[in-house]
Amino acid sequence: CFYEGEKKKKTEEEVVHLRREISLLPAVSFIIGTVVGSGIFIAPKGVLMNSGSVGLSLLVWALCGILSLFGALCYAELGTSFTKSGGHYTYLLETLGPLPAFLRLWVEFLFIRPAVASYVSLAFGRYVVEPFFAPCAAPMALIKLVSILGVTFVVAVNCWSVTMASRTQITLTFIKMFALALIIIPGVIALAKGKIENFQNGFEVDLLTLDRLPLAFYNGLYAYGGWFYLNFVTEEVVNPNRTIPLAIIFSMVTVTVFYVLVNVAYYTMMSPAELLLSEAVAVTFANRALQGLASLIPILVALSCLGALNGGFFGSPRMLFVGAREGHWPPIFSMIHIRRKTPLPAVLLLYPLVVLMLITGEIYQLINFASFARWFFIALATLGMLIHRYRFPLHPRPFKVPLVIAVTFTVVCFFIVCLSLYSDPWNTGRSCALTLTGVPVYYVTVYRCRVPHKWRRTFNYCSKQLQILLEVAQQEIQTY
């Protein structure tokens, strides 16, 4: 009897599926570590440039934090109402149907995720390389090479082990919070000593134009981006009904307070003109406020970028994994490594796309382009949540966000997205066009498969060989 019990236990442990290994501390670290990346060290320049004044830029930072918290609370309800992983994709599928869900998957993996990961990894490479060449300009080829090495490290960790990726995220999160504290403390001390000249006449509205304000919010919201990543891994969270809401609320309140204080600290040491001229705001700040520790800041910023990159590579492949499991992507991407228990094919797909985007260099102009698609689909997801509430009032909702918060967030998101059509019609139009290219793909490959039989047979043969090579198999038990 004992032998049979041990045999059964061993069999259960060997079953191929994603384990629930993310408790509260890793969940908090996952959100904070993904949100706090390159954004807080890059975006202040964009927020100030498009808002026009110190006071208004600080207000934009605070409002972006509140808006992100509202969105995170909506996603806490969605994450506890629908227990599948996959984040945006799953919620659109469950509330609005397969076409919006497929389009989200399509635009995420062909554009948004490679663009954002490339942007963050390039920031990592820049902060690693530039201190060695200062005051001269660092060679771009070397920056890109280091960026690719950073991406390779993150991919390797996420392919190797969920536990290792989780521990790496916790470590990098503590490092990046230390980096923010290192900026905040000298700023608060200088403020207490009366260094407030840059805050006087802080709300000059002469430079403010309505068409540029959405771009200020896009830059701020980019820095807060990542609050939704925990929802990508719902099936791997321990006690998700408790862990997801707690982790989201604690993380977003903490990040908002830190971000506003960091920007206040920047303005104690730099005038608005100096901040706009700075290529690396955190380094300029450190050279003035932390002469003895100035060389440490680029290292901390680089590690911060690495943490955001790790969080993105941990969360996003789960969306692809779930999409493939639902039949919206090739089945090979819904498979798990038989020993490592990681979604290996889904993680590996991102790698060549990010490297390709890094090499081609078309990154900086793409952030507004990516932001439009991202925020449009987030608005659709929360709209879907409201529709689902109305249609299925008895559906279990362990965490329920107040209606006023859900409506406010959805309306503001659609307002920002619509206003961006006026602010930046070229990038917004391209983003719409790219998203809509998924419509014919959906109808040809998913809705009614019209792919020639010969092509399908070739594709199935390649998938089978790839499955053997990667040592992956379909999930054997349901985890939702």
UniProtKB/TrEMBL annotation:
It is a multi-pass membrane protein. GO terms for cellular component: membrane. InterPro entries: AA/rel_permease1, AminoAcid_Transporter. One of its GO terms (molecular function) is L-amino acid transmembrane transporter activity. It comes from the Eukaryota. It is found in: Membrane. Its main location: membrane. The keyword tRNA processing does not apply. The chain crosses the membrane at residues 21-42, 54-76, 110-129, 141-162, 174-192, 212-232, 244-269, 289-309, 342-360, 366-387, 399-422, 428-447. Keywords: Membrane, Transmembrane, Transmembrane helix. The keyword Membrane applies. This is Uncharacterized protein. It comes from Mola mola (Ocean sunfish).
